[in-house]
Amino acid sequence: MPANLDGGACWWFTLLMSSEDRSRDDPADAREAHSEPHEADLERREAAVAEREAAVAEREAAVAEREAAVAERETAQAERMNAAETTLAAADERDAVSDARDAAAEKRGNDADLAEMMDPKSEYGAHWPERRYAAGDRRHAKDDRTASRDDRHIMTEGDEEHDAEMT
Fold first, then answer.
1. Quick one: which of 12, 93, 103, 135 is 20 to 30 A from 111 by CA?
2. Does pTM surpass 0.85?
3. Type and span of the H or E element at 112
4. Rg (CA), the chain
5. How far is the C-alpha of 74 from the C-alpha of 77, rounded, in Å?
6. pLDDT recorded at residue 166
7. What is the DSSP letter of 151?
8. Residue 166 to residues 2, 87, 151, 160, Cα–Cα distance (Å)
């Protein structure tokens, strides 16, 4: 026997070896004792695997359901974005027309004032109809800008009148 095992230096080792020796004494009994728990253990493990696979299938179904809901929301969002872009394009077009009309009306008004001021024989007020038309164009331009602003406001803030009817 080696020197490090003499004198109880590894008493636990000797206990371990003696317990293994006892289990080897009757191998037929050991096999029978281990075979039944092995089958039960195998069934338990298979049941656990089936349970985990069922849980995985449930999670995958839940994920697929959430992905379908996300795809539906993305489609609805894309439709809303297209509608918003169309509304903004129309508002920008109205603004451009209004700005052009406003600039033309302002130029006509300034030209009429300048021409009347430079003409020594003019009677002030002879061109009131043209001035009224220019003022009408400015009013129309303002109305168009107001409509464009209202469209943008409704898109960003919502329509309070419409929202009140919904409740």
1. 93
2. no
3. helix 27-118
4. 46
5. 5
6. 47
7. H
8. 94, 22, 19, 10
